[in-house]
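Two quick folds needed for the group meeting slides. Do the first one here.
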Amino acid sequence: TESYVDTKSLTDRMRTLLFQSGKMQFVNEARREDLLKEQGYQAANATPETQTAIGKQLGAKFMISGSLSEMKQTSPRQVRVSKQVLKYYKMTLEVTDLKTGLLVWTTEKEFAREASKPLIGW
């Protein structure tokens, strides 16, 4: 998009809502290195009774991906105190089965935001 969109916050929100629905579980890919480091530490320093078993993590079955695009419509030249800008966004999401590579679900959502910019002043 042309303007700043906090995609991290957007994806965190979607993951939270999906997780709270109770219909999905997520592999914590962002912390994978930290998990491996902790398992290595436990293997070297923890007692066998308290160690987490290595090689017991679950692999993901599906991958969610998508895109966010922006289209802008600006008001034509006219005598106005402010300039109207209408930004359209389209978010596309898809779920891919990692075993087969098949696209198993997709959706898109369109929404708009209107903004006014003063021609004089700030």
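Then this one, please, same format:
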Amino acid sequence: IARLKLMNYNTAYIATPIYHGYGVAVLLLLIALGKKVIIQKGFDVKKACNLVRKHKVEVITVVPLMLYKMLKHNPEDLKSLACIASGGAELNPKLVHETFSKLGDVLYNLYGTSESGLNIIATPQDLRYSANTLGRKIKGVQLKILDEMKNEVKVGEVGQFCIKNRWSMKNKRSSWIETGDLSYRDKKGYYFLCGRADDMIVSAGENVYPADVEQVLRKHPQIEDVAVVGISDEGFGQRLKAFVLPAEGSDLTEVELIEWLRPRVARFQMPKEITFVSQMPYTPLGKLDKKKLRNQGV
């Protein structure tokens, strides 16, 4: 409530599905606060933009894909927004910068899980510090980052998020929830996501995190979005494969992209294959569907 400054606003629009934990939690919170809440069946970008403009919505909950579509459709409809609460999927830094450019400092990044609830929030100021950050943990959250031996890692080292708070599904005081998410914390106390634990691959003895390569590739001016997954390799055990969605009008080639990427990542992080796609698959909740990419072998 405090970090999103919800007491300052009167009208909210929950664009995220009510049947999902994120949507229903925000709905119950806003009802308790006595706020006006706008909801609709399903998500249609044109209807969503019209609702924001018609009701002068100040707060909106979205997954990043929704925000991306709304900004592409008509950012002028979104000028009343003072708090865009994005959650449920990873924020693309390009989307962060586009939101700031078109709407100002109104974007918040929320991190939580179904089991542990909301735990970390990045304010607009935090996202100015780093568009990749999850932000800082909220009051009442105990958070550890543990290695495979269940030991806490040092600052800057990658490990798994383990969380304990008063509002989690496990109500024993001694219960820590293993989220399955890999992350690290920097010296200033900001948290950064490195993907799912089951996304990590071991290539020639090196731990490789697809999310690290994704973050680099997203900085390319001719790339709209990217997904990196692990594939089998006879020589290395596993290698990376990148699925790249080029920006509209791009003439980027695989050879050009490999040459651009080579000096920016370690040798063991270089993808074995790069496949250009016309669209990315998403789950009904707006998360990038890497499982579908792996299974379909796009």
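Slide caption for protein two: The helical segments are 21-32, 45-55, 64-73, 93-103, 124-129, 210-217, 254-261, 290-296.
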